[in-house]
Amino acid sequence: MKPDPNSEKSNFNVPNVLTVFRILLVPFFIYFLFREEIFYNIIAFIIFCLASLTDLIDGYLARKWNQTTEFGKFLDPLADKVLVIGAFATLLVLNEQVETWMIFLIILRDMLITSLRYIGILQGKIVQTTQMAKLKTFFQMGAIVIILMLLMIISSGQKNKINQIYSAGRDNGKIGLEIAGENYHLFISNFRDTAPLLDHVSQIAAFLPYYIMLITTIITVLSGLRYLVSNRELLNLNNIWTAYREKNE
Predict the structure, then answer these.
(1) Residue 71: pLDDT above 70?
(2) HSE on the CB side for 153, CA within 13 Å?
């Protein structure tokens, strides 16, 4: 039965429950992703897809049933950040192609935008979203899905071998981009070999995650800069101080 739109909105509703459920799924996702067996990696992939699906459903239901609440507006983006950052942080530990500076910039961007939203609330203004923010979300989710799929396909021995290639390359003074480039050229040179398909997939897994993460990081940073430019009037120090003082009087 459709909820009565004229009734008083409650924070305890289906969209908010789905949002909370998304947050609760994150520890299970991380746990199964840390397990080396491919079976558990498949479970982690399913959990991530399920959590991502709740992100689409809760927003749709909140609009359709007129159950949008201030709590939901706060919790929904927080749940997204917990899911995405939790995934990237775990991949940082498991995959040598995911580098610390990439995750640092992704987290920094989210912290800046969260601070910008707080400043907007303080001034009673709405932070303008951008199309690049949607593009950022697409690339971030896509990067996680592709890397998780590769983890499901290749064996734990192949994962360890790829990590060792990157670790040894860095010990020899190479940067991640250089190592990924070498692995890419190796894949191209061996592409016509009659090797098993899984061997080609493992060669792809030796460079694709790095390139995907590199592109995702660049788009994430650019989307953050776009946010700041679009909402630059909120960053006026006099306005911020005036709003803060009025709130605390």
Answers:
(1) no
(2) 16
Cα separation, 147 vs 95, whole angstroms: 9
CATH numbers and ranges of domains, the chain? 14-248 (1.20.120)
Query: Cα–Cα distance between 123 and 244 in angstroms, integer?
Result: 8
Q: Which pTM value belongs to this model?
A: 0.85
> Strand locations in 69-193, DSSP E?
none
Residue from 116, 132, 126, 130 nearest 236 by CA? 116
pLDDT at 196: 64
What is the sign of the dihedral through the CA atoms of 189, 192, 193 and 196? Answer: positive
Handedness of CA 212, 75, 52, 47 (dihedral sign): positive
- The band of 5, judged by pLDDT with boundaries at 50, 70 and 90, is very low
